[in-house]
Amino acid sequence: MALWLxxxxxxxxxxxxxxxxxxxxxxxxxxxxDRRSHDAATPRGGGIAIAASLLIAAxxxxxxxxxxxxxxxxxxxxxxxxxxVGWMDDHRPLSAWLRLAAHIxxxxxxxLGLQxxxxxxxxxxxxxVLAVGLTNAWNFMDGIDGLAASQTGLIxxxxxxxxxxxxxWLAAALAAACAGFLPWxxxxxxxxxxxxxxxxxxxxxxxxVSTLAAGQQTSSGLLILLPLxxxxxxxxxxxxxxxxxxxxWWLAHAQxxxxxxxxxxxxxxxxxxxxxxxxxxxxxxxxxxxxxxxxFITLSLLAWYMAxxxxxxxxxxxxxxxxxxxxx
Length: 328
Fold this sequence. Notes:
This protein is mainly α and 328 residues long.
């Protein structure tokens, strides 16, 4: 495992170095603007290093694990579709509906793979919904230095501790690749993930969460939803608010609470660290949660999501009058 982690850490670190040079050469830059949370032109597309690392890991594990060949193959193909569409979008913006269609296709493959492996249609349907949701949620939440990569790394590391077999190795590869990417993206971003990284991360997290829940086949599998709360609440409530206002919700914006908070503080670091602490706490609760009582687990989930929602509402109200500029 140590060698595996080292290889994927190096892939994330060196791959991002290559991606930065490529982006600068191709002029793939995100420029400051009203819909962005940075004040300097910054290369994008660094997530290609994480995507390539995880895709190679999935292919290798599929070859080495015949009993997981179907699921890992479906994951690898769907993951390649999501990352590939993101990579194209990083070069030339694509239609939001074309991207969504690709995400739906990839999520369908993932659900099919889970169905053929575990034979549970309800888990398969849930996987489809979760994959579409998290792929887009991670894209929405990738707006300040280190946020998406740190959340992915934390959840992947916790999932690796809970899984076994090839899925554990896949989760470990994702966590290590994120660790290799982060020095380029935090505390001061020298390159952004881009759509190739953010969407692929969300899809990968959905796959790991789904296979863990399907493998356990018990109510305790629901607890994996705890570490997703920070992103799901911010992305979901912000999206719902924009839809209720009749806004073009599919367009880029800077209305998420994490963006408002960063503007108020005029810094990214404390926001990214606060989200990391929240998710780390959720991971600890999940991994150490006692018992398997469905009612208790359900109430605990509701309590955690309610607490996250209340904190979201507090921050939104606090940040309504945030200044427009940021230092980072």
